[in-house]
Amino acid sequence: MQAIAKSSLWLNAALALLVLALMVVSLVVGPAGLPVRTALEALFNGDGPAAIIVREIRLPRTLLAVLIGATLGFSGAALQGLFRNPLAEPALFGAPQAAAATSSFAIAFGLFSATSLMIPVFGILGTLVSVGALVLIAGNRTSLTVILLAGLALASFAGAMTALVLNLAPNPFIALEVAFWLLGSLEDRSRDHLFIAAPFMIVGWVILLSNARAFRALTLGEDAAMSLGVDLKRTRLAVVIGTAFGVGASVAVAGSIGFVGLVAPHLVRRYVQSDPTRVMVPGALAGAALLLAADVAVRLVPSPIELKVGVVTALIGVPFFLFMIFNERRFLEGETA
Amino acid sequence: MSDPLLVAREISVRLGGRTILDNVGVTLAPQQLVALVGPNGAGKTTLIKALAGLVPCFGKVEIEGRDRAAMKARERAQKLAYLPQGHEFSWPLPAAEIVALGRYPHADPFSRVSSEDRQAVAHALEVTGLKDFGSRMVTTLSGGERARVALARVLATRAKIVLADEPTMSLDPRHQFVVMDLLRQAARSGGAVLAVVHDLALAARYADRVLILEKGRIVADDRPDHALTPERIARVFGVEADMVRLGDTTVPVVSRPL
Prior knowledge:
- Chain A is an all-alpha fold.
- Chain A has 15 helices and no strands.
- In chain B, the strands form three sheets. Chain B has a six-stranded mixed beta sheet, with helices on both faces.
- In chain B, helix 6 (173-188) links the parallel strand 7 and strand 8 (192-196).
- The A-B interface holds A 1-2, 4, 84-85, 213, 216-221, 223-224, 226-231, 273-276, 331, 333-336 and B 49, 52-54, 72-74, 76-77, 80-84, 86, 88-94, 96-98, 100-102, 104-105, 107, 111, 113, 118, 121, 137, 139-140, 150, 153, 157.
């Protein structure tokens, strides 16, 4: 018991340092080409153009990457723990799709630009409606199959709504704007985006973390977990709501960013001996590090149009995930690594 | 005789319009290992789950003299432990971590590990012969070892009442004895154990009492030699049984289907 607790403390410390280092990198990298020293000094004092670039553009972007990456990591780890399945991820029950659908509707018809503050509000509302519907459909019969099937239906419906918005967009430029926004990006997000999304994400973290202890008990199966005193209905509801808050807010400010929620917990799972409870915090830190790294990468790749970070996470994520499955196959199947 | 640890009265379970359990009564006294036997589909698993509070049922269950419905889940979990069928684990955790889950109902809000927790886990690993297996991943263990890990988890709770659903399922003969010995030990140290057993000879050898369930009703609740008679075995299970003397007990050995 102690051995794992100690090793996960070291793991968390190492990952936190990595996140901090990547944050610094994210603050000093950008098209303005500020010298490293100028950029770091501008973070704390001065009000020249350097200070504006670092504090108003790069800092919100960096903090959003950390918050969103951590949210995706937490949500992925929590859903994997709840469903006792390493393939579970937020998109499973439609939260990101619903946020994407309502946000793209707002962009296409609500006369807001893709970087307006009304977009996150719409996205979070969309997620809440979708989660509300999920809870209503699943109701008291909170069996896993019902939740998964209802989630699948809602996700498909949200996908269809997004397609409908693109289909009916008043003009092709708006359709293009929506399509680009959907790809997922942290570019040009302001401090206000940070302030509107952060509370939802942090509430989501608190909800997920306060239910994390049940995940380890769920290793024994749902009946045995309930016999140990786990309130399974409450845990399921809490995980669904916590994920909806966090992921809904993330998608709403940054579009859809795939694979981080699925991959991040797997990166660290073996270092916590597959413990579904202890994987939460390192999973979130790994998610933050992944998204920061991807967001730095899109700024470093020379390209006339900045690459969207959602595209990069998907492009790098898929082969990486396959590689990991291949490498860890024996471990995932439970044999000695 | 001292007060019973668990009393269940008029337990009925209906699922999808079908009656699975019909007015079943169960009393578990301390020091007793009770075997629950019956053909497939008789409702044994449902009865165990109903007693553990895992399926909704009509009737009343009292744990140590108190209404179960008035207990918090955590309190119930400290007094009553449930061992499900199958001994499967979703994640490849080390065996000691699985066993430590038995302490879940005792954990304080800050999840600190108390010395009692540590002692209970060490003791459970010791009596199940798993001392050297603590750091092994459960998924790498054999069926018999996994069954012992699952049982050790239940013992680590130190609950007075243990409800075990087919604890000897798919175990080799030696491990069946090992598991039954451990359950008997748990009963002898002041607990009450109700275990679903399919092997009638094993039930007769180990149990202090045998409950026979047939189509959702209790048809016998007695000493093994009174409950498991060749006539009743023929009627309930549809098999012929020879009574064989083993030391100072007589056990039924099933010889052919009727």
